[in-house]
Every structure is written in C-alpha cells, then in structure tokens.
Amino acid sequence: MKRQAPVFLARRSYRLRRLRDGARLLPLAGAFLFLLPIFWTPTEGMPNDTARDWIYLFAIWIALIGLAAILSRGLGTGEEAEAPAGREDAPPPEQP
Amino acid sequence: MPINLLVPVCLTYVAFLFLVAFLADRRARRGGRRWLGSPLVYTLSLSIYCTAWTFYGAVGYAARSGLEFLTIYLGPTLVFVGWWWILRKLVRIGRQQRVTSIADMISSRYGKSSLLGVIVTLISVAAATPYIALQLQSVTLSFAVFAEAGSFGWTLPDTNATALWVAGGLALFTILFGTRNLDANEQHTGVVIAIAVEAVVKLVALIAVGVFVIWFVADGPGDVAARINASRIAEWDLVPSRWAGVIALSAAAVITLPRMFQVIVVECGDERNLATASWAFPLYLAAMSVFVVPIAVIGMQILPESANPDLYVLTVPLSQGQGGLAMLAFLGGFSSATSMVIVASIALATMVSNHVVMPLWLSLRPTREVTGDVRRLVLNARRFSIAGVLGLGYLYFTLSGGSEALAAIGLISFVGVAQMLPPMLGAIFWRGATRLGAAAGLCLGTAVWAYTLFLPSFASGGVLPADLFSHGPFGLSWLRPQALFGVSRFDPLIHSIFWSLTLNTAAFTLVSLFTFPAPVERAQGLAFVNVFDTERAGPRAWESRDLEQVETEELLILAQRILGDEAALGFFETSAQGQGKAGYLPDPTPDFLEELERKLAGSVGAAAAHAMIAELAGRSRVTVADLIRVADETAQIMEYSSTLESQRAEMERTARQLREANEKLMQLSIQKDAFLSQISHELRTPMTSIRAFSEILMEGDVPPEMAAAQARIIHDEAIRLTRLLDDLLDLSVLENGTVQLDLRLASLNELIDKGLRAAGQIRPDRIFVVWRDLPSEALFLRTDPDRLAQVFINLISNSRKYCDALRPELRINVKQRGARVIVDFIDNGSGIAKEKQHIVFEKFTRLTDQNRAGGAGLGLAICREIMANLGGAIAYLPAQGGAAFRVTLPLRLEKHPFADGA
Amino acid sequence: MARHAMLIEDEPNITEAIRFLLTRDGWQVTALADGLTAEAALRDARPDLLILDTMLPGRSGLEILVSLRADPATADLPVMMLTARGQGRDREAAERAGADFFMAKPFSNAEFVAAARALAGEA
User: Among B63, B322, B661, B821, which has the minimal tally of Cβ within 10 Å of its Cβ?
Assistant: First the structure.
C-alpha cells in the first residue's frame, strides 16, 4: 500500500520529462523535413510539380502545429513548480 | 467608386483603432488585465512579424521565386515550435530582469554595459530605418493604385506628401499610446490590443482575397493547382543555399528584430501564453501564406505583364470590379504597415532613450544627485525618439525614391538584426561569453553586413563606386564586397549572411575565450544561463556590506524622481510592511535593493538603474571582495553560501527588529514617567500665576486698574488649564474608542477652508503662502467633519508655528484612491529629523525639547487618535523637502470603526 | 540701596507676579525670558539674588547654574531655583548643581518673599 502513491508520482514526472524531450526534438525534426526538398532531384524531362511541393510543405507545417499544440497542452500548465525545469538531468525523485 | 471612399474609410479605421487602444488602456488601468493579457491577444500581437512586406510582398516574392517565399515563415515556425529551447528562457529572463528591450537584455547580461546597449541600439536603428521606409512606401503605393484605378481625374497630390501624412499620423498614435506612462515592465496594453485587432483585419483581408481568387476567378483548388503547374512559378528552382539560408535567417530575425523582441518578451504578461503561441502563431503564419501562390498565379494570368506583382493583392480584385474587396485588402495592408511601424518605433524609442539619452544625461549632469523630474525627461526622450525614428524612415523613403522590390529591403534588414543572434544565444547558454567578445562580434558582423549588403543596396544611388564591386578596394580583389575572400558562389544575400555571421561568431567566441569577465558580468551570466534553477542561487548584485552607506530616504528620493511619487511611496511602504516595519522607509537589505533596481530598470534600463543605485551606495565600481566571491566557480558552493548569507541577513534583520521594538518600549516607559511629570508641569505653571495673583488680590491694596489686569491674567490662566484638561480628556476618550462620532456629509474643500481660517491666528505676522488643489478638493466625504477639521487645524497650525523657511509655504494635495481619500500637508521648512519621525505622534512630544511654543505637545497625539476613530490614519511622509503629513481616510465612513470590537 | 534680584523665567505671567511681589518689597527686579543671554547679563548687573526657572528655552536652568558655579565671579551668588515639576529628583539635581534654595510652583507669596530676603541677607 505504501508504495503506490510514489510510483504514480514517478510515472507522472517520467511522462512530463518525455514531453519535454518531445518539445526539444520537434523543431529538429521540423528543420530536417523542411530542408529535405533540397535533396530532391527533378526528374529529367518532367516539369516540376510545384503543387505537389506545396502540399508537402503545408502538410509538414500543419503536422508540426498539431504536435506543438499537443505538447504545449501537457507542458504549459504550470507544472514547473512540481519539478523544476533546470533539474531534468537529475534522477527521478525516489520515494523517501 | 472606391477612391472617393478611400480617405474617409481610412480615417474611420484609424479612429476606430484609437478608440480600441484608448478603451483597452482604460480597462487595463482599472485592473481588467485578465482578458487583455490572454494567450489569444498575445498570439495576435506577434503577427507584427507579418508586415506590409509580407502582406503585399509575399505574392510578389512568389511570382518571382516560387515557393521560396515560404522560407520567411518556416524559420519562425521552427523557432516557435521549438519554444522550449530559446523563447521560454528569453521570456523568463525578460520577466526576472525586467528587460525593456533587446538592447537592455544584451547590455544587462554583459555586466549592465552601456557600450553594448549603444551598439545594439545603433544596429537596430540602422536596420529598422529602411524597413520603416518600406512600410511607408507600401501605403503610398497602395494609395496610388486606387488613384489610378479611379479614372475620375482624382490623383494623389504627391507620394511624398502622402508618406509624410502617414508618418505624422503614426507618430501621433505611437506617442499617444506608447508613452502614456513610464510603467514598470514597459507594457503598453492599448497598443497591443490595437495591434491584435489589426492582426485579425489583415488575416481576414488576405483570406478573403484568396477565397475570391480560388472560387470566383478560378474554378476551385484543382483548377488552381493545374494553373500553378502551367505557370512561370512552376519553373522555379530551389536554390539549396537560399532555401536553408533564408529559413535560418528568418528564424534568427524573429527573435532579434527589436519589435518582435518587444512583443514576445517585453509585452508578455504571462509565461503560459507562450505555450499557446507555440502552435497558434505558426498556425497564423500558415493561414497568412496559404493563399499567396494562388493569388500570384491568377495575378500573372489575368493582369498585363507590366503590373507590379507586389500589388496583386490589390490589383486582382480591382481588375475584377470588386471595389469592396479591394478596400478590405487595402485596409489589411494598411494594418500590416501601421502595426509594424508603431511597435518598431516604440521598441526603438525605448532603446534610444534608455541607452543613449539616459547615459548621456547621467554623465553630463553637473551634480551626483538625481534632481528634477526624471520621468518627464525619459518620457520626452521617448517622444522625441519616436518622432526621430519615423523621421528617419521618412527621410530614407524620400532619398531612396522607393520602388525596389519590397522583399529585398526586408531581407537586408533581417541580416542586420541577425547580428545580435550570437551575443544573444551566448547570453543565455554560455556563461563564458564576455562583454568584449559580444562587442567585438557585433562590431565585426555589422561592419561586414554594411560592407557586403547594406551599402551595396544603395549602389545605384552611388554610395559605393561601381568598380569596387568588380575589382575590390585598392585593387584588392579578395575584398570585393560581394565576393569576400574569393567566395563568389553565393548570391549577395547568402554571401553576406555567411560572412557576417561566421566572422561575428568567430570574433565573439575567440575574444570571449581570451578575456576575463568583470564580476557583475559573471553574476549576470549565472543569473541568465541558470535562470530556471532556484531563483536565489546566484551571487547577489548587492550585499549587506554595500549597504552601510545607503540612506533609504535618498533611495526614496531617487525612486520618486523615476517612478513618480505615488508609485515610489507605495513600493516603499509595501517593502517596509514585508519587513515588518511601519511607515515608508524599509531597511536597505540586498533583497530590497535588487527589487528596487529591477523596478527602476523597468523605466530607465538596467545599466542606468545600476549606476544610479551604485552611486548612492558609494560603490561606483565593484570591489576586490566581489571578485573573489564571483571567482568561486562551483555552483553548489555559491548556492550554499548564498543560503547561509540570506539566513544570516534574516537573523540580523530579526535582531534589528527586536532591538527596535525594545528601544521603543524603553522610550515608552520613559515617556510614561515623563507623561506624569509633564502633566504636573503643565498644571502647575498656570496654577502658579493664579495662586500668586489671587493672593495679591486678596490682600486688597492694589490700584483698581492693576487689579483688573491681574484678574485678567488669572482668567487667562484658568482657561489655559481648562483647555489642557479638555485635551487630556479628549485624548483619553479617543484612545478608549468611546467617542461619539457625528457622521454626516461634508465638503472637503470647506473643511480645509475652515482649517486654514482657524489656524490663521497663529503667528499672523508671517506671510504664509498656501498652495491648494481646488479641483481635487471638490469631494464630499461622509465623516465627522468637526473631528476632521480639528486634525486639519492642528496640522496647519503646526506648520505655521514650526516651518522655519524664510518664505514659508504650505502645499495641500488631495488625491482619491478608490474608496479612500489622501490629504497631504507639505511645508518647505527643514522638516523633522529622521530619529524623531517615529515619536512625533506620541504624547507630550515637543521636538525642540525646551521650547514651549504653545500647547502641551498633545496635538499630534490627538490627531492620530482622531484619524484612527475616523477609520483612517495619519503618517509622517519622509523625503518631501519639508515637514509632510499624510492624512488617509475613507470616502464614506459607514459606522464607527471600533464598533465591532467594542 | 535697593536690593537687586535677577529673574530668569519664560512664562510672562509668572514673571509679572514675581516682579510685582519683589518690587512691592523694595527690590529692583531685572527679568530675562531665556537662558541664552543670562550669563552675560549677570556679569554686567551683579545682582544680589538670582531666581532661576528650571525649564527654559535655549538653555536649561540647571546648565546655567552649573556654569555660574564654575565661574569664580559668580560662584557665591545666591540662587533660588523654581520648578513646576516638584519631584524629588529635580530638587536633588538642583542641590547638586549648587542651588541655595529650591521653590516649587505654585508657591505662597509670603513664603517666596521671605525666602528671597533670607537668601539676600545671607550674602
């Protein structure tokens, strides 16, 4: 009985830390996907399909916005007080 | 048709914006900030990123370079989606350090350096001037479009005149709403709300034009996609260096543009707004760009080759006879231009006044002390700076003649402000970054930018000779402005980004590695980089040792000059209460000084605030002990020692409070003895004359006229005795709270008249000037008028008796604060010595202890009791340049304040 | 020759009363209202008796007394102290400072005049 509450807390702070990792990774993933068109080679003889490029870029864009919205919901609710942001590298708090 | 309506519609729109700003400001001052500071408003205010360049220019950009225009939005999207990395930290630092501008932040991080503040300010002004000119140009161009379309012979008077009107109007709006107050935090609610409204207008306008183009001109999305692939746009080639380079550039610019820094950091009322903006602002950007390509394609197809693609947003609806839609588009462009100019000029004006005008004033003023009204100086400096910034923009507009492709000017400006990126990232991530490193990087980067991009942009105007580009200066071909060190593969923009940022970063890091930061720099570096660690971990800017010389009263004088009387007194009173002290003078603890410094920094910038307090503390420079302290690198040790220090300071403060309480008790006990002895004295003195003369009269051999004189003396002294007994009785009744109050409505003005009349008999020989504020006195109070008048009579009499100025003057100020009324009585005498201030309200306190200039020393004690009975208070106000008493009382006293307790 | 008394007292009505009593008894009376000018005036006037109030503006009566006693020219001058506080402590302080007689306010006229005569006669 005594162990259950701390286990729940640890899981919660674990989840919060993964959310932060996600928030850090998101712009890197976005940058990678936005820069990807640099490496596309136009097919010989075929005209550029600008409409397709446009759809690709906007799809990535909308996906980033959606993910950021989901992440911000989990991160931006003032939970910093519980687990100081500058201490992520510390091991998760064990039960006393 | 539209042209006749254009001017009235425009003016109505501007008037509407004025009204919105005015109402929002009023509401904010009444405490209604909750809705005004919402995440939605915050996100919309960020939209000043989308200027007229974006509104009109993006379509032109797309027509010329295909999808490359998207890079301008993809960079900011990445920054906002990645808010956890940089923006979160910037906003937290901004709030903790009360940052007023990007110049202030960089100056503050690098040891509150004035030099860096000036450098960043100059770069920002240089980069923003063409950008502001660009906005003026876009407004005049759009006017011209309407003038051409309306073939009624109504032509624009002159593009220059139009631009001048627009610049003048914007200056007026900005000065009105941007420099209303010199408030803490530099937040301008009215302006922000107006900008949020403009954000909606421009989004709606662009979407409306897009919908019209796709579904009314073309046959829906499929048709548009086909037309895109059939058009010139499909031939665009993605240039990898430009694609990556401009994404990176716009990402840098969105945090270093002074106006963006202003809305992201300075105007941010709540950190949580950022979480919402992290996705909502990219969404706004996506919505702004979704219709750009369709509009460009349709424009290219239905308009003649000669039409300017930068104006398709206006000309496409006009060519289809859609006057109303064109009008909406015009308002969208107008909104984009005006909101950018307003925020940019506020941000720049703050920087110019805080980092150029204030330091100049501080070093040029003849005396050390801060005299005069600094607030007015700062506000006027800002007003002139706003006018100056807009004037520069207008000048650039007229000199350059306009007409270059809009996007080019915008990108040049971006590269200029991007020079602030290395010192800014260094500021928040690298504790080893130094002031000299930042200055070296900024100067080198800016010089390269000016040489490779900014000055060549005037090339047609002849600032740089043509053969410089082909052969380089002095025939040194490796110094050609657009092929530095032989790098000629890039186009000029990417070439400039590449070299300016590379050299900037290299100089910044190398100089930082080889120089040693000053102690304040290291303290600030720690505070910035570790902003999310415990808020108290860093070394303090002020230590108890520094504070021995600080007179709180001097600090109060300084604060009043900068924050204004009421705000300063309020802040000092709250701080004193926080320390468990009564009155307006808190102990000058390190915490208090830091808080005060941040508060002042909110008005005049960190560097100036630090310098002012350091001067009062007698510490113009940092001591060796500070060096040793900061040199101690280990963060834990510092944290530990600072905890110890704060505990020690806490104990010292408690001990001091105990000592004070003890002293007060001792004094009270002495006063109790003195009270009896005083009563004895006060009773025996009139008694002596009475007894002596009555014995003489009893003997009966006095001539009648002398007897009459002696009887009069007996009578006078008897009256004096009675008065004394009355006072004592009065005091005892008031102290017990058993007094009967006669509550009715009374005019404050009449009560003060009464006080002045009644006190007029005191020293009638002196000419006593009284300054009153009659409009504020026109108040009706519900109180006991006789009792209140008694207090006024007492205070005015005291002033007449004791004011020792050659030309005595008394000021009576009245203020209403919510349901309370404040009446201040301030004379120009030498005031009350600090050590006596806390006993003036005690019984039988005569300040000149041997002087019996009249009463028994009960007057102020009675006043204090009366005010307590009237539900108010009376206090001595320090630092007013004379004796000053503040009477505070409720506007409507409903029942006896002691009734519940009795 | 009339005996000369000097009175230092800041309450004008009390001064008036004492001046009346002593003049009627054949004294010549000089009155001063504060302690600042007292010593110079004393050295010039050389009175037979000094009547000194304890609480005076400028300089307290006790301070004046102490400096009088320190000066050989006035060390022997008879001094009557007046006090309105009438506590034992004041009397002791006055005697320590070298007062010849201590009179509490309010006083009886007869006692006052008798004390003045006695003090001047002693000298």
Answer: B661
What value of ipTM does the predicted structure carry? 0.92
Q: According to the model, what pLDDT value does residue B358 have? A: 77
Asked if A51 is an interface residue toward chain B (Cβ–Cβ < 8 A), one would say yes
Question: What is the C-alpha separation between B462 and B478, in angstroms, rounded?
Answer: 22
Q: Which residues of B fall within a CB distance of 8 Å from A76?
A: 272, 274-276, 278
Which tokens in the block code for residue A43?
A: 């097919």
**Which of B397, B428, B448 lies at the terminal end of a domain, its last residue?**
B397
B833, part of any domain: yes
Same domain, B488 and B524: yes
Contact C30, C53 (CB under 8 A): no
B290 touches chain A (CB under 8 A): yes
The pTM for the full model equals 0.64
| Residue ranges making up the domain that contains A62 | 4-87
Residue A62: closest CA among chain B residues belongs to which residue?
Answer: B283
> Coil, helix or strand for B576?
helix
DSSP string covering B807-874, please? S-EEEEEEEEETTEEEEEEEESS----GGGGGGTTSTT--SSTT---SS-S-HHHHHHHHHHHTT-EE
Specify the residue for token string 């009446």.
B823
Among candidate residues B633, B658, B680, the one where a domain is terminated: B633
> pLDDT band for position B438 (50/70/90)?
very high
Q: d(Cα B144, Cα B136) in Å, to the nearest integer? A: 12
Q: How far apart are CA B499 and CA B479, in angstroms?
A: 12
Tell whether C120 lies on the interface with B, counting CB pairs under 8 A.
no
- For position B759, which CATH number holds? 3.30.565.10
Tell whether B278 is within 8 A of chain A (Cβ).
Answer: yes
In angstroms, rounded to a whole number, what is the distance separating the alpha carbons of residues A65 and A82?
27
Chain B residues inside the 8 Å CB shell of A21: none
Q: Which residues of A touch B247 (CB under 8 A)?
A: 31, 34-35
How far off is chain B from C61, nearest CA to CA, in Å? 11
Question: Are B225 and B172 in a shared domain?
Answer: yes
- The CATH number assigned to the domain holding B52 equals 1.20.1730.10
Mapped onto helix, strand or coil, the DSSP state of residue B363 is: helix
Q: Does C109 touch chain B (CB under 8 A)?
A: yes
Query: B744-747 and B780-783: which strand pairing?
Result: antiparallel
Pair (B128, B90) in one structural domain: yes
- Give the domain extent around B317: 2-397
> Could you tell me if B271 and B343 lie in one domain?
yes
Q: What is the domain range of residue C10?
A: 1-49
Nearest to B201 by CA among B346, B350, B20, B352: B20
The Cβ of residue C76 has, within 10 Å, a number of other Cβ atoms equal to: 11
A92 domain residue, yes or no: no
Tokens encoding B289: 């760009």
* Residue labelled with tokens 């109402």: B23
Q: Is B40 on the interface with A (CB under 8 A)?
A: no
At B631 the pLDDT is 35
Residues B385, B274 share a domain: yes
Q: Residue B736 has which token pair?
A: 């017990």
Handedness of CA B85, B86, B87, B90 (dihedral sign): positive
Residues B551 and B534 in one domain: no
- Domain for residue B642, yes or no? no
Number of separate domains in chain A: 1
A25 within domain boundaries: yes
Cβ–Cβ below 8 Å for C108 and B713: no
* Contact present, C and B (at least 3 Cβ pairs less than 8 Å): yes
pLDDT for residue A87 is more than 50: no
Sequence-distant contacts of B451-456: CB under 8 A, at least 24 apart? B451/B481, B452/B481, B452/B482, B452/B484, B452/B492, B452/B495, B452/B496, B452/B499, B452/B500, B453/B412, B453/B415, B453/B492, B453/B493, B453/B496, B453/B500, B454/B126, B454/B412, B454/B416, B455/B481, B456/B481, B456/B482, B456/B492
